[in-house]
Amino acid sequence: MFRNQYDTDVTTWSPAGRLHQVEYAMEAVKQGSAAIGLRSKTHVVLATVNKASSELSAHQKKLFKIDNHIGIAMAGLTADGRVLSRYMRSECINHHFVFESPLPVGRLVVQVADKAQVCTQRSWKRPYGVGLLVAGLDETGPHLYQNCPSGNYSEYQAFAIGSRSQAAKTYLERKFETFMECTKEELIRHALFAVKESLQEEELSSGNCGVAVVGIDEPFVVLDPKTLQSYIESLETGKEEQQTMEETGTDDRQSLQVQHEGTGSRGISVGAGDDSPTDMET
Amino acid sequence: MSMMFAPRLTEAAAPTTHAAPTWSPYDNNGGTCVAIAGEDYCVIAADTRMSTGFSILTRNYSKIHQITDKSVLASSGFQADIRALQKNLDARHQIYQHQHSKQMSCPAMAQLLSNTLYYKRFFPYYAFNVLGGLDSEGKGCVYTYDAVGSYERSGYSSQGTGMQLIMPVLDNQLKSASPLVLPLRQSTTPLSEVEAVDLVKDTFASAAERDIYTGDGVEIVIVNRDGIRHELMDLKRD
């Protein structure tokens, strides 16, 4: 992006009818490490790529619980994201105090969007430099929304934001039609595959990614590293089994072998011949 | 009609006196709360009668509220204020959990409750609270409060309309002997969980005999390392 003479103020329009400052803010989102979201009929899964700024430091926290039924993943200026998450938590708590019921996800998303819009129309403010993927469950079912620095929001079946998100989006576009019927485990595996696409060369491990799930009767929780690692390993065994199935054409003995190899994955079924082949990879 | 708007001539001369208050923002819904702390458990109990004046509003109202996995609040007094206080504490606890990624310990909740009550020092919550639970070491703890937040940790306590009947009994059964009295008595043998629950049931049955505001039923909550357990016992309904 090149400098323009109409981009000094957020309150200055360009002759082409654009607010460059807002677009620069969205650029900040695109520069942040990737965040991915996808949903089924019963669950919503968020996944993030966790990039540490140096080898010595820990990575930034990008998955935040907002309430038992809502959580967010962010990409961009995580400091702005923290402020927004504090606002969202406060709104949820206040709503619950008055109405003794959970704040519907769509309402919260609109409130955040309106808050973001204010910053695009005040000369003494700057837009938030963070994009949010809001995952939540309410009476109308599971939802996934995206919040932009521009103040726009939209609902998605599956989406990815941040750097190298296009690779993840390509994977999601290929697979999204199967998501509605997925179980929680299948959905998490899809999310991890999408993260893998964004990581490209790097190897997926619990150190460089994060996953969170929310579902019907299941409060929002960020998976701990151990659980996450076992899911990651189940991706490997799933892939191996896929190859052996295709090669030998047998199922039972092979899958039994594979299950023993799987590292104590809490009984996560690694497709013991039941899952359809299209589940893992084409 | 015009008479109503004409100012009375005597008004300026007469000294102003406060009229007897016709409306009070408070009401007492009665009831009694008790809590006993043990080595590794805590028993919290309250009767289930809700009254106003000489009438019963309901025989089946819970005065007990679980705030965290390890803290249980029992309150008697004005139930509307008590409900508002419970919701306030819940909201504050939610915020704490978001910020610290863990639940509040019972001693921390005790301090928070005290601060919350004192915050309304000049329009108090009409709530007489007993907070029970397990502290960070897993030992039973009981905190007892007045309406404006003065609190103390102790081994046992009671609050409410039946407090005057129950407290002396608990003192007799649970208070350790004075070291000044001779012959020197060994420290009291620790009360087991079953014994504590039985004692609580006995105290409520006794209080229900003479306190008109206590009766109908008693709800008993036991907090120990395995979690939280509920028991219900019927009381006299007269």
From TrEMBL, chain A:
CDD domains documented for this protein: proteasome_alpha_type_1
Subcellular location as annotated: Cytoplasm; Nucleus
Keyword Nucleus: yes
Domain of life per record: Eukaryota
Keyword Cytoplasm: yes
Boundaries of every Proteasome alpha-type subunits domain copy: 6-28
Keywords assigned by UniProt, alphabetized: Cytoplasm, Nucleus, Proteasome
Region annotation Disordered: where it falls in the sequence: 237-282
Listed SMART domains: Proteasome_A_N
InterPro entries tied to this protein: Ntn_hydrolases_N, Proteasome_alpha, Proteasome_alpha-type, Proteasome_alpha1, Proteasome_asu_N, Proteasome_sua/b
Subunit structure comment from the entry: The 20S proteasome core is composed of 28 subunits that are arranged in four stacked rings, resulting in a barrel-shaped structure. The two end rings are each formed by seven alpha subunits, and the two central rings are each formed by seven beta subunits.
PANTHER family: PROTEASOME SUBUNIT ALPHA/BETA
UniProt function note: The proteasome is a multicatalytic proteinase complex which is characterized by its ability to cleave peptides with Arg, Phe, Tyr, Leu, and Glu adjacent to the leaving group at neutral or slightly basic pH.
UniProt record similarity statement: Belongs to the peptidase T1A family.
Protein name: Proteasome subunit alpha type
From TrEMBL, chain B:
Record PROSITE patterns: PROTEASOME_BETA_1, PROTEASOME_BETA_2
UniProt-listed SUPFAM superfamilies: N-terminal nucleophile aminohydrolases (Ntn hydrolases)
Recorded coiled-coil stretches: none
CDD domains: proteasome_beta_type_1 (cd03757)
Superkingdom: Eukaryota
Location of this chain's protein in the cell: Cytoplasm; Nucleus
Keyword Cytoplasm: yes
Record keyword Nucleus present: yes
UniProt keyword annotations, A-Z: Cytoplasm, Nucleus, Proteasome
InterPro entries in alphabetical order: Ntn_hydrolases_N (IPR029055), Proteasome_bsu_CS (IPR016050), Proteasome_sua/b (IPR001353), Proteasome_suB-type (IPR023333)
Role summary: Component of the proteasome, a multicatalytic proteinase complex which is characterized by its ability to cleave peptides with Arg, Phe, Tyr, Leu, and Glu adjacent to the leaving group at neutral or slightly basic pH. The proteasome has an ATP-dependent proteolytic activity.
Entries under PANTHER family matching the protein: METALLOPROTEASE TLDD, PROTEASOME SUBUNIT BETA TYPE-1
Family from the record: Belongs to the peptidase T1B family.
Record-given protein name: Proteasome subunit beta
